[in-house]
Amino acid sequence: MDERILVLNGPNLNLLGRREPEVYGRETLADIRRRVEARAQALGCQVAFEQRNGEGELVDLIQGLAEGWHGLVLNPGAYAHYSLAIRDAIRSVGVPTVEVHLSNVYAREPFRHRSVIAPVAVGVIAGLGPIGYELALEALLARIRG
Ligand code: DQA
After folding, report:
1. Residue 143 confidence (pLDDT)
2. Whose CA is nearest to atom 1 of ligand 1?
């Protein structure tokens, strides 16, 4: 019950539910939060669930993980494809990170096929919808607990 995991969402994910539902589904971010919190309780860890639109705000939250946090589940949104600042922040704090995408980015536009975050992540889950967050949390904990 000791692990503290941050589940962090990037830009435009606050619009889930009404944003391109044919791509991202109908669940809202609040629905996903409920799922994640229920799964965290079942797995016996603590989670904080956050969303920010700004790159710098995301970097600030990631830097804060150095103060007693054990893992990060990150849906970077479009920043996945170009934010070296977020990549560097993850590397700097050295906290194990699983990258999540709701959609199958590899079945979409070519600019979504590349993630600059993936090389500093433990792994990536893409295309499985909201359950991807739960799977990421479970995989991260398995990794942390060894
Ligand atoms: C996304 C995929 C990104 O390419 C896109 O910019 C998003 C959402 C996903 O969850 O599928 O904002 O990260």
Report:
1. 96
2. 77
